[in-house]
Design brief:
single chain; mainly beta; 7-stranded mixed β-sheet; 4-stranded antiparallel β-sheet; globular
Length: 128
């Protein structure tokens, strides 16, 4: 299993921006579909965004579409999420997740159970 470490969280005012990074260990990063999820206090973990192995396909939760951008650099074993126009309701612990996908898949993975590896999470707090 790949090991994942998130960074880049913090406190930001509403309307501001943050970029989260997730560094993965191992030599097969390009075999993983990568995702970002978040969990606010008292709420279930929810899907934010995901990206295909090559980075060509990206998809987002409706709540972040147009504000967040997921990307990856397979040479650096890193996936990112650029978060713009942040809102107080974006406050949550953000988790990076990986799904081993050694062969092409046209499916869209948006459930936490679709992903087998997880980082420890990074806190994002948006003040109003």
């Amino acid at each position: 299993q790949v090991q994942l470490v998130e960074s880049g969280g913090g406190l930001v005012q509403a309307g501001g921006s943050l970029r989260l990074s997730c560094a993965a260990s191992g030599r097969t990063f390009s075999s993983y579909i990568m995702g970002w999820f978040r969990q606010a206090p008292g709420k279930d973990r929810e899907f934010v965004a995901a990206i295909s192995r090559t980075g060509v396909i990206t998809y987002y939760a409706d709540s972040v579409k147009g504000r967040f951008t997921i990307s990856r650099d397979n040479a650096k074993n890193t996936v990112y999420v650029q978060m713009n126009r942040l809102k107080p309701e974006d406050t949550a612990v953000y988790y990076c997740a990986a799904r081993l996908t050694p062969y092409y898949s046209s499916s869209y993975y948006t459930e936490a159970s679709d992903f087998g590896s997880w980082g420890q999470g990074t806190q994002v707090t948006v003040s109003s």
